[in-house]
Amino acid sequence: MNTKLSYLSLACLAAMNTNAMAEEEPTEAAVERIQVVGKSVSYANNETTESMLKQQSNLTSVLAGIDNLPGVLINEGDTFGSDDWSTTVSIRGFQISLDEQQIGITVDGIANGNSNYGGGAKANRFIDTENLALIEVSQGTADIASRSNEALGGTLNFTTISPTEEENLLMSVSLGDFDARKYFVRYNTGEIARDTYAWVSVSSASNTDWVNQSAENRKDHIAAKLISDLNAEWGLSAYVSYDDSHEDNYQRVSKAQFETNPESDRLTAEWTGVPYVDQLYRKGWSTLRENLFAYVQADYESDNLSFSGNVYFHDNSGRGDWVPPYLNDLTVDTGRPETELDSTTTVRGGSSNGIITFVDREGFALAPADNCVSSIVFPYGGAGPAFDADCFGPEAIPVGSYRHTHYGKQRFGFNADLAYIITTDSFENVTRAGIWFEDYSRDEYRDWHKIIDSASSFEFDHTPYWIQYDRSFAVDTTMLYLENEIDFEWAKARVGVKKFIVELDSKDNFDASNNVAGIDSDSDALLSAGIVANLPIEGLEVFAGYAENFAAIKDTVLERDASTLTQIEPETAENFDLGLRYNSEFIDASLTFYSIDFENRITFLPPDTPDAGIDYNIGTNGSYVNVGGIESEGIEASLSIQLGEYFSLYGSYTNNESTYKDVPDELGLGIEAGNTVFGSVEDMFVVSLDYNKGNYSAGLSNKYVGDRFIDAANTSVAEAYSVADLYAAVDIEPAFEGVQNMQVRFTLNNLFDESYLGGIAGQSAWIGAPRTAAVNLQFTF
Predict the structure, then answer these.
(1) Distance CA 97, CA 100 (A)
(2) d(C-alpha 293, C-alpha 316), whole Å
(3) What is the CB neighbour count within 10 angstroms for residue 377?
(4) pTM above 0.85, yes or no
(5) Which of 35, 312, 320, 548 has its CA 20 to 30 A from that of 652?
(6) pLDDT, tens digit (0-9, with 9 covering 90-100), for 138-153
(7) pLDDT tens-place string over residues 298-320
């Protein structure tokens, strides 16, 4: 573990201390209130606080900000969240992972376009950490207007900051362990036209991995936002962001592998020239993504009528890489060199006839010697003779592939919300209605490239020898909702209904007989209702909410030829919340009981299950099926207390029980009804103490995560762990003319260097990040 940065950062803070203490003490203490209870609505919801965001460095993904809220578990491959492949989110037993997308994500209220690895985009692709205002977590029932058809277990809404009224320039430099660095600049224009303000920001970040420091992660981000009050009733806002990321991945491990060596995910740092070993070369496990996202929104508000409408566009493109230790044998080359070695030949479609691992100098495929036993023992339990050079003659030349899966997606959509208010002496009635429409198209193809010289590097021939498949998908989504809420001052009640109309099409660009058109994935009319009532104790309220949530069939289902679409139904969930909230000058508290019934869970069944290793050739085989459901119930509690002028205390507790139900026996999944949902956690709690006095702020937080099952059969357990985070910051009187403010902030995540298994997906797990330090220096001009 690199501790030099930790010592350097603490020394820097100490050196600045004298300058900061010389400033005049404010006459009144600056009290930072912690508010995590959320809005006074009929469903559980929470918001991040400034202290929670300070626990994460500027190098960190925006997703990490919600990890201390009740019911939420965020796991990422490293502290900086620099690998989407290893990112998982869990709320009430619902997951965002490689396997499942059951939690909705919105950016300023606009749908993110799904969160899956294969062409999806989570909030960290749209928002830079420095441009994040807050995150709203609506667990379970959520707002009826939430724009997502993945929100079975709730919605995460990430909100961007607004421009300031005054012109200023913010410059930020962040440094961290594992060669982490980030340079960020944001310019606030001030008033550029009457009541019109804007900002524009640019950042560049990079870091390596924590395992063997071989990854070359980088991220470049550009964003801008504008707001304008056109008149007393109309307002305009707009946002645009561009993100370009290259991420080298972390690999999942089994429980046995973790126990053998908890500091290695088995990906390698050096190219060995042995293809079977080099299939785990970290730089060959890569995620490349570009995301362009923009919206323009108009808002209107009068005494009894309000309207909000926006149009948005999202373009996503990228690639996922692996390095299979062979060439696919696609053509019969009797008596001639292998066609796959010829960079002028590309096979389109079809299937592999076998694999080629070694060739001679003329390009003829070689076979291993009879009865040869391989001496290669890593990875995946060792190689057979076909992968071991010792089983071939001295003239054998190793060959391998660089496999690319290319993703492309374009989304265009609009949202409109209307609210009409009727006010009388005894009550206020609000009727809301809205629409969301999105036209979505996605392209995906996979090509295989010959590695030019497998003995020396993973450089590849840019002309593919095989384009395995090429497919296009189109999805049209329309959501309509209507809700009425009546407020009697002492209580307010609402009832509403919404409906999704979803149509999917797929096109096989190689074989038109595989085309699928006009698949409907519509919802029934989805009921939503709730009530909030004030109790005799001032500041105390009780709430109850019910919602029928829905997730349409994903276009990924259409990728698999064996999926029987007429027998697949969309996923649904019935969510019920019952709780108490208390809000006073010094204490905020909430307690929620929830119960969720999840039906028609969709799962992918591969054509076979290899005992070890990766099936690199899997393409359109396998199928998606409904495999029963999940029942979840539990409690979520949070408490924040202002302890005098300078200290505040926050705590949250979650108890969750998520179990499988109605699992079809004939599928042979090895899952029994009553088994705990793998990856879900039964017990979590957080305790945070924060200090804020004048120019100084600091905080210490600890999160406990209970045991989780790694597999659906409940035979392997990721044991409980606790992770503590520390931050300290000081605002410094500028020593330079023209500088308005200087701040130094130090963060130390996983303070006690806890060793644990983090994110779980595919019935295996990623190793949790070790202790990681970072320091940020920020100037405002």
Answers:
(1) 5
(2) 9
(3) 10
(4) yes
(5) 548
(6) 887 778 888 887 778 8
(7) 999 998 999 999 999 999 999 99
